[in-house]
Amino acid sequence: MITRREMNAAFCTSLIALLSGAGAALRADAAVPGQNAQQNAPSGAARRFPPLLQESIGDIGDAEASMLILNIAPKPPGGGHGPFTAHKHSGPVFAYVLEGSVENQVEPEEPKTYNVGDFWYEPAMHVHRSLRNLSDTQQARILIFQVLPKGKPPAYPVQQ
């Protein structure tokens, strides 16, 4: 289990690396003779750092963002999927698989398999039907980034 301090340290290190790389890319674009750095930087940065996923999150008013690592235990002995309750998230969720393989279903989509490096987006208030680890022996880990309206619970249970 990762502690909050370890997660914050990892997040800060990643953010510093990302910002350092973006700054270096912008400086490199500015060094090209005969070109305006302001005109070249956005397109140059977009070529070097294309988004993995880009979604509109709509107007959710006063919101707060959070990031967490979700650990999903291996399948229980004798089969089954472990505990999962269908729910809706009050805000948009972005997920990235750090370890393992999982099957995830958010309506209206069919269940999909995601492996290390794969990612998905869950729109606010769409039914999240299932999330299960596909391994019998290895834990799966998912990095979750979510934007939630302040004062609202992160999820609401729904009927199966």
Helix/strand structural class: alpha+beta
CATH superfamily of the largest domain: Jelly Rolls
Q: Would you count the extended β strands for me?
A: 9
Termini separation = 30 Å
| Percentage of residues in DSSP E strands | 25-35%
Q: Rg from C-alpha positions?
A: 19 Å
Shape: globular
Order of helices and strands: HHEEEEEEEEE
Strand order of the largest sheet: 5-4-7-2-9
**Percentage of residues in helical conformation:** 10-25%
Search tags:
single chain; 160 residues; alpha+beta; Jelly Rolls; 2 domains; five-stranded antiparallel β-sheet; four-stranded antiparallel β-sheet; 24% helix; globular
Question: What do you see in this structure?
Answer:
By secondary structure, this protein is α+β, with helices and mostly antiparallel strands. It has 2 domains: 4-48; 63-157, Sandwich (Jelly Rolls), CATH 2.60.120. It contains 2 helices and 9 strands. The chain has helices at residues 4-30, 37-48; strands spanning 63-72, 87-89, 93-99, 102-106, 112-114, 119-122, 127-133, 140-149, 155-157. The chain has a 5-stranded antiparallel β-sheet with strand order 5-4-7-2-9, with no helix packed on it. A 4-stranded antiparallel β-sheet has the order 1-8-3-6, with no helix packed on it. Helix 1 (4-30) packs across helix 2. The chain is globular and about 45 Å long. The two termini are 30 Å apart.
